[in-house]
Queue: 2 jobs
Job 1
Amino acid sequence: MRILVGTSSKMNLTSTEAAGYLDTLRPLVADLLDRDLFVLLPFTSIWIARDRLEGANVGWGAQDVHPEDAGAHTGDVSAPMLADLGCAYVEVGHHERRRDYGETDELVMAKVAAVQRWGMTAIVCVGEQERLSFDRVVEIIAGQLAGLRAFDPRRLIVAYEPSWAIGIGASPASPDWVAGVHDAIRSELAGAANGTVVPIIYGGSVSLESAPTLLGQRSVDGLFVGRQALDPRVFAAVAHVEPAASGESTAS
Ligand code: PGA
């Protein structure tokens, strides 16, 4: 499977800033033809990605979507609007949306349906809210993934993002933990995906230092980078990281 490396800028990068970001990033990753790269921007900056990334080896997308295609939903943005801007990816169910807007698994699945209806790939974020036992975490994630059976596995990416590992002051989950959870997700998805292997990426305080070891873990198909990737040079460097052979630890 091709390694996937993506970032969400979260509520950062005005359209003017996004232009500078993408103009810096594009040449720095132009050599990475054997990997899939993506940048998820705020709705207001996505048109800049369409403008600046046309023909590049970096896909673009959104950080959320409304489950319905159109109608009386003030302030919301629909999947056809994102598809029209050339989005290939739409993130759904991020921890911060579940936390700030009370998004439920049911709503997240309705968003996956909307994304796939419009031919885009859904990046479905799963993960526990607090540090819990391994068995409990696997149980929680199985619940979050339960509805995915209904969807096209070829247009799915699962992002494991334990909320305790996300954001300023946090540190990434340990590589062993990530390997175990990703294995569990892989077997959970195996039944649902009809032989298609759904990529599973890890997110939560990924940095240039932690990336090689995380990427070297079993069942880790890629990385989802947050705040560290707000510098396009760092994102480009993480995108170039080679998986560390197991036993070779670079994580701090
Ligand atoms: P972080 O964000 O890298 O800033 O922790 C990760 C994420 O939310 O995907």
Note: The domain at 3-239 is CATH 3.20.20.70 (TIM Barrel).
Job 2
Amino acid sequence: MRQSQLFTKTRKEGPKDEVSKNAELLIRAGFIQKEMAGVYDYLPLGLKVLKKIENIIRQEMSIVGGQEILMTTLQDPEIWQKSGRWDDKIVDNWFKTKLNSGAELGVANTHEEPITNMLLHFIKSYKDLPVYVYQFQTKFRNELRAKSGLMRGREFLMKDLYSFNKTEEDFRKFYESVAEAYMRIFEKVGLGDITFRTLAAGGSFSVGLTDEFQTISNAGEDVIYIDRAKKVAINKEVYNDENISKLGLNKSALEEVKSIEVGNIFPLGTKYSEVLSLTIKDDDGKSKPVVMGSYGIGLGRLMGTVVEVLSDESGIIWPKEIAPFAVHLVRLGVNEKTVSFAEELYSDLRKRGIDVLYDDRDLRPGEKFADSDLIGIPVRFVISDKTVAENKIEVKYRTSKDSELMSADEALKIL
Ligand code: ATP
Ligand code: MG
């Protein structure tokens, strides 16, 4: 893509009312735009990152056997009344709306009840199990404080997976396979070293304890106790001797840190299947409720977390797997030879299927480099009168201060 045609522009300053670092950087670099507190648009650069995160998650969901669906945002209150979660005292962040007739509807904040109800049409016998379904779907939550940029939206994209098993034992096996998939996802997006599986309290709807995935960051709202060596943690809300010993941990090895909850997996037992009558006929002919689990990751929260923890004073530093482009080609100088060298390299990169942002604008070098640092593409190729004279490209990694002159062939190899 030619940067001269990108309709978004970088900005020196973010909106005055934006206090979070992730939103400030993402807005200044042109990845997102703020509509209002907790409500953001994804612009071309931001959408590319979001789609890359989505694809990494989709790949892992497919490995654990998930089938992708897309459920509706508008929800039938009757289903929620059965579980008791229609009540605003039980779920305090509902957005609700009304039909012209006055009848109430729910605006999706999660999907345990609707998915369970939907599967009544398809799950009848133990032979129909297991079923694992997931979606990338927009959730709406009337969050009290929406001051953390993409990390706490009132409207946000979530990957939610739901599992339906015949037995608790089958469920546990699947639950562990998802926990492993989650760690692979967080590794791929560049948060592996600082993300911990964390024992936590249940939500408004889970059964017993849950597992969160918490990324160490001072921008986080949670406090957890981590064992760095064993790579596990306990959330402050359930930090006690019983749970410490349950995880085989030693109090003296635990370190208190602030963290961001990037994912959460929940054992649901038969809580929903019982109230919504999702039962199967077992091999002995007896009817019994299906064993369920649910598993969430907020895509925007993940993107915001990456920006919080991987950025410096000049801007964002994207890990290559989710960077909007593989390389930022920056042309300096307007000399005819320089321009044609850059144009040829741009078209060569595109022919090779390499995703490239080409800064073909006639701006001062300082402005171009500042933009490039702010946008944060991992590798930069600079073409100038000087490099062209030597028939070379200046290659610089976003994470390094130094650059290196290379031939086009050598430069292509590092991509
Ligand atoms: P929190 O405690 O931070 O409010 P939660 O425990 O209510 O989150 P879950 O219901 O577990 O959230 O949602 C699953 C995942 O969705 C979370 O782990 C997080 O990644 C993401 N998520 C939840 N709320 C938001 C939000 N308001 N904005 C962006 N992502 C969110
Ligand atoms: Mg949670």
Note: The chain has two domains: 3-312, 327-413.
